[in-house]
Structures are given as C-alpha cells and as structure tokens.
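Researcher: We're teaching a course module on how sequence relates to structure. For the next exercise, students receive a sequence and then see the predicted structure as tokens, so they can try to spot secondary structure elements on their own. Here is the exercise chain.
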Amino acid sequence: MKDNGNKNSVSALIPGDALNGLVQVDTKPKTLSIMILDQSSSMMHYDDTPQTCINGVIEECKNPKDGRTQFCTVIAFDDEAEILLPLTLATEVVPISNYRAKNMTLLWETVYQTLKVFRHFYRQANGLADIKVYVAVFSDGDDNKSDRERQPRKVKKLARSVRALGWELFCYGIGIDGERLAEDMGFPTDSDHAITVEGSPEAIANVTRHYSDATTTGCFDPNFFKKKQKTTTPQKP
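Model: And here is the predicted structure for the students to work with:
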C-alpha cells in the first residue's frame, strides 16, 4: 500500500479523523480490530458468507462486552490488496457490501503491508493511548502471488515485531492447516491463535465468532471449538 491517493492507498485505509480518534489521549481504552480476508477465486463457492460473517463481527464490536471503544478495518486480498472498510469507529460502520471472490492469492504481501502501515501509526501514539490491537487472517489457500524474493521472509520479521508490541495475531485456515499458515507468516501457532476448520459456510461463521469473542471480551475460550456451535450464519443486515 502506497500513499498515492488511490482507493487502496494508505490515506484511504486510515482516514485522518478515524486515526485521531484512535490515538487521542483520553481515559477511554480502545481496541483496534484489523481483519484480513481472502477473496481469491477459491472462496467463490462460499458466496457472500464471508462478507455476512465479517459484518457480524463488526456488529459485535459496536457494543463490546469489555466496554472498550472499538475501531475496525477490513482488507481483502486476491491478486492485490483491497480496502473493504477503512479504519472506522465501529459504531459508525456501514456494513460492507463490496466483497467479490476472484483471481489469485496475494496473502503474504497483503499481511505485510497492512501490519507495516498500522505499526507506523501505533508507534506514533507512543504508548500515550490505551490501545489493544487484534489482527485476524482468514484464508482457504496458500499464497501464490507474492514475490518470493521478499516473502514470507519480510512478513515473518514484521510479525515478530508487532507481537513484541503486544499485538494479538490470529490465523484461521478454512479447509487448510491454520497452524502451518500461521507459521509461514510468523504468527503464533498455539491453539488459541492458529485455528483449522473445515471448508464450509458454517465453519466460516464459527471462526468469525471465535475472533469476535476474543476481541470483544479480551480473553480466549480454549473449548470454543469443542462446544456445539450454531450451524447458521449471521443474518444479512
């Protein structure tokens, strides 16, 4: 992502008013939820389930159980990164409607560029604001588009850097090994953060619910996927 003024630039991803609200020094604790969503052609058979489920996460962020002020952003990837939702105060989010599965899988470079941009602004806050950062990657396939001379080496290094800042990184493998997917990117590989589920609409609903619970309560349920989950996806807004 370059700050070149186009629809997928840094300035488009992080509008000034939203950034000011996030890093503002006040007594309100804040949560930044960064969702990175596969929209390559292999996701096509899920229709609009991913979009519906991500909108469900955002709805939960509007009234979080932990009482923190939530900010959300959604970045999708196919041949390139696409901003589906720029950084926005959760209570002001209009449901996303522009998710379209197509093309290849620029996973590593998208994750790298997203982490790089938000780490820069996080460091600018310089610890003055109480900000928790959660990042989730949802993918049903391996990267087949990123430059192998750069990746995954650079994303692994950057992931280690933001983990040292206290960021929580989640990886959800939809029909593929989530632990291996996480390891490729330098994300944590424990069972709370690297999740593997079957490739089904119901599984997508479950992983987005798992992420929503973690980000709105600040804790993890180690038995989440052992419990019987509802098999219906969230209703469209």
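Model: If you want an answer key for the exercise: The mean pLDDT is 90. The helical segments are 10-13, 16-23, 49-61, 107-125, 153-164, 178-185, 201-217.
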